[in-house]
Input
Amino acid sequence: MAIRPKSPEAIEQMRRAGRTVALVLARLEEMGRPGVTTAELDAEAARLARDHGARSLFLGQPHPRGGRRYPGNICVSLNEELVHGIPGPRRIAEGDIVSIDFGVEQAGWCADAARTFAVGKVPARVRRLLEVTAEALEIVCREARAGVLWSAVAGRIEALVRGAGFSVVTDYVGHGIGREMWEEPKVPNFVSRDLLKNDWVLVEGMTVAVEPMVNLGGREVREKEDGWTVVTCDGQPCAHFEDTFVIRQDGAEPLTRLADPEKG
Output
């Protein structure tokens, strides 16, 4: 497994791409109101990416198992849809939860992130699902420092999710990222025998996309007939959060977040 730390110059380029991703996701969450179609969100993402000199990483991607290429700029998944939802005429409704995954290549470097948000009022348990999945990324910020085994971080994420009474999806994992959207290593959000057998140490300057996927009910998911959209088998809601991180000595720095105005 080739873990490739990035140079300071490369990290700055990825930070630029990450800022574009963060701007797009913030804008789409702002737009995500009842009556808006998922195709309208997709069109806005494409426009903003072009304005920043970036291109969508998802548009035209071939399916990992063959079949048609992905037709959207974003993946937009509602309620029981976990990932890879295709944008189209579907309108967002009050009470939906909306997951948007978006990545760009900009000046030869990639960044990838996802957010899940509620539209209006949702049950308290669903709200808690979103909070816990977002908190998993904060574990990465604090714990994913150089010299630490990834299994230690994955174990903390899994313990958080299970402690809240939710399920970690094990069919999909995060990934290294840089010049390409998918680089080594694979980055699971759970500890398995395979991870313990092939564990790896976090290295200063390596860049990874960590993306916890959490179900309200059971962990089982399936792919729909459209060949892309992944849904929970029990029809219960799910959440997906993701950031692109660079590993430092004191933790992991997210490259796909906007600066906190209160911190300058």
